[in-house]
Amino acid sequence: MSTRRILEAFEHWRDAHAPLVLVTVVDTEGSTYTKPGHRILICGAGGFQGLVSGGCLEGDLAEHAREVLASGRAQLLTYDLRDDHDGIFGLGIGCNGLFRVLLQALDADAGHAPFDAIAAALLGDAPGCVATVVESADPALPPGATLVTGNDTESACGVPAAWRDVLRRGCREHRQAPRALSVTETLSGPKARVLYAPLRPLPRLLVLGAGLDAVALLEIARELGWRVTVADHRPAYLARGDLAAADRTLQVVPAELARNLDLAQYTAAVVMSHHLVTDRAYLAALATTALPYVGLLGPRARRDRLLADLGSAAESLRGRLRAPIGLPIGADSPETIALAILAEIHATLSGRLDLVAAGD
Questions:
Q1: Helix-helix angle 214-223:334-349, to 10 degrees
Q2: Residue 118 burial (CB < 10 Å; 0-12/13-18/19+)?
């Protein structure tokens, strides 16, 4: 389940003033469904949004969540699924991994802190970091104490003033880290194990072209939890009524794209207007950005013609432009083409594209 769905569930439960428990994976060994930093929410009524184990252990987590809500104290749990002969709870899961999770009660009277600050960071435009105390030898710093930082924001929940500089420094050091990491911190003797997890805003996808083949791309991207804007110069395309999956639709003059949109806020862009002059204008605008992924629909000959028309501006697209677009999965329909495109974007953003292309 996507981060976006968790955030949508949080908004619904928060508005209902429902008691909630935040579950965070803090440590794993071997093969596990999720990795450190992964989060889900459990409602006091027993419902949950997100998965830790693929659905095998969520019922047990819900039982522990009720205990955490009753006590108000965070709880650290360990699930060891490495013994094939035991078959945890008689399920015979066979995941061959171990993971530890921290359960934190979210204070409804305080806006469901600290997840309110985590949600704000994920819905924002700048990276942040969350420091969660997993274990502590200092009575003043209980497990579950959390500091959430952004570019110019900070929110502390249960963190005494004496520890804030320590966690603040750790957040600065780990904001750009590729993954969550546990660190042992010390303050004048007492030690604490802290999970630092980078907070990356939900990716924003810009789709330039609202043809019929864009519909599947928008729908799958939204299902993945991405924020999607679709722009086109043809009002009739935008008025068809089948672009509901987009967060925003916009009519633009292609040559003035940068005036209509803040291109720097996007994570990736797909050029698919099926109109040569329009695509050239879009590529010219994207060439001035630092977007890590720019995809162009169409064959190699069309790509080469467009790049030749761009002249020196084409050089700034080197290493970022994917054309023909999408992973080579034998796509032959709007849905499979959308799958190939989004898989390529995901691989690019996660730094796995070269490994995927090599067949790893």
A1: 50
A2: buried
Extract the tokens encoding 348.
């690019």
The pLDDT score that the predictor gives to residue 357 is 52
Q: For the stretch 240-250, what's the b/e string if a residue is b when 16 or more beta carbons lie within 10 angstroms of its beta carbon?
A: eeebebbeebe
Sheet of 227-232, strands arranged across: 248-251, 227-232, 204-208, 268-271, 293-296, 321-322
Between CA 3 and CA 296 the distance in angstroms is 27
**Reported confidence tier of residue 358, pLDDT bands at 50, 70, 90:** very low
Contacts of 78 (CB under 8 A, 6+ apart): 98, 99, 100
Q: Please state the φ and ψ torsions of residue 293, each to the nearest 5 degrees.
A: -135, 125
Lowest mean pLDDT among 135-139, 232-236, 263-267, 353-357: 353-357
User: Domains plus CATH for the chain?
Assistant: 1-112 (no CATH), 126-201 (no CATH), 204-357 (3.40.50.720)
* Residue 39 token pair: 């989060």
What does the pLDDT read at residue 14?
93
Mean pLDDT of 31-53: 87
Residues in the chain: 360
Q: Is the pLDDT of residue 77 over 50?
A: yes
170 sits in which H/E element: helix 161-174
Q: Which helix (H) or strand (E) holds 148?
A: strand 146-149
> What global pTM score does this model have?
0.86
> Residues 184-226: pLDDT tens digits?
999 988 999 999 999 999 999 999 999 999 999 999 999 999 9
Sign of the CA dihedral with 177 first, then 290, 342, and 330 last: negative
Token pair 């970022």 is found at 320
Distance CA 90, CA 352 (A): 36
pLDDT surpassing 50 at residue 180: yes
